[in-house]
Amino acid sequence: MSLDLTDIRQRITQLDRHLLKLLSERHRLAFDVVRSKEISQKPLRDVAREKQLLQELVNFAEAENYQLDPDYITQIFQRIIEDSVLTQQNYLQNKLNQMKEQCVSVAFLGMRGSYSHLAARQFVKQYPQSVTELSCVSFDDVFDKVKNGEADYGVLPLENTTSGSINEVYDLLQHTELSLVGELAYPIKHCVLGVENVALTEIDTIYTHPQPASQCSQFIHGLDKVHIRYCESSSHAMQMVARLNKPNCVALGNQDGGQLYGLSVLASDIANQENNITRFIVVAKQQVKVSPQVQTKTLLLMTTTQQAGALVDALMVFKTHGIRMVKLESRPIYGKPWEEMFYVELEANIHCANTQQALADLKAVTSYTKVLGCYPSEIIEPVKL
């Protein structure tokens, strides 16, 4: 005898609530783990242990004949591990920097619903107190609001997996006295948004920021006779389409932002790459202390002489000291044709003696160096089997 659908749904609801209770218990255990590691001074991440845990869970499910796909199990527990690592990291960082409950303000590009706005909200989740959100009309405006004390933090996109580095932000970092204090990754899920459901063939105007247009170029090229109208941000594009209220005018944005402006999703998953992710940086007036137990990055700026092999000599310093370089970006120096500055991103903590010695050696083979920030990373690379 088959069960009634209502009864089945009630059983699913009960199981889901029980799962939530178990997840809550596991989340609380992360605080016991970090207090233990705080005493032992062990690193927060133990990649070998994480890999062993995943393999044991997959093997256990198979032995018990749970009929669960190994990839399904792995993905779920990778997310659980990420939550545990970030919980422990926030605990140590808040304690180290003596963060107190107060109103926190954060500046970002665009209005409510922009990707920068959503990323800013993700960053301030670690602050349970009141949060003030400040929208900005440009990247320069974000820097100014933090510099002038109107905002405690500024959240800015630095690079995207589809369109690459955001040069305007890199160039602004050349001239700022602000410090990088954090980074996070935010998945970008572009949609076509309109005031009503119409066929894509009826669209004649797309409002968008240049970055989404670049990231969705293949989709746009597939449309006939479409005019592109560039806006200050994705949120401005969505606001414009809502204000025009014309079925043939659409915006490139995200579903959450579209809901804020009463827009409908006409097409989704339109980015050139399936995994479209933007990395955001966080800037503030004051540097942060970073626990030696957490995953740490340092971004520095340097220039080399024009002699042959000068850049190689500089990069060899990091190899000599066993410091992993994760990114190297070059930008022109204004007023000096054909000369470039180099942004070097390292997996390193400047408070460690090894890093301090590497920086001292670097100064001997470069003409200019400046540390832009040393910060904990909220980008947790999942362990794979």
TrEMBL record:
Swiss-Prot/TrEMBL catalytic activity: chorismate = prephenate; prephenate + H(+) = 3-phenylpyruvate + CO2 + H2O
Binding site for substrate: R9, R26, K37, D46, E50, S84, Q88
Pfam family, one: CM_2
Organism: Muribacter muris
Compartments (UniProt record): Cytoplasm
Domain Chorismate mutase residue range list: 1-92
Keywords: Amino-acid biosynthesis, Aromatic amino acid biosynthesis, Cytoplasm, Isomerase, Lyase, Multifunctional enzyme, Phenylalanine biosynthesis
Main subcellular location of this protein, as a coarse class: cytoplasm
Molecular function as annotated in GO: chorismate mutase activity; prephenate dehydratase activity
Domain ACT: from-to ranges: 299-376
Name of the gene encoding the protein in the UniProt record: pheA
EC number annotated for this UniProt entry: 4.2.1.51, 5.4.99.5
Ranges where the Prephenate dehydratase domain occurs: 105-285
Protein name, entry field: Bifunctional chorismate mutase/prephenate dehydratase
Highest taxon listed in the record's lineage: Bacteria
Pathway involvement of the protein, from the record: Amino-acid biosynthesis; L-phenylalanine biosynthesis; phenylpyruvate from prephenate: step 1/1; Metabolic intermediate biosynthesis; prephenate biosynthesis; prephenate from chorismate: step 1/1
Organism lineage: Bacteria, Pseudomonadati, Pseudomonadota, Gammaproteobacteria, Pasteurellales
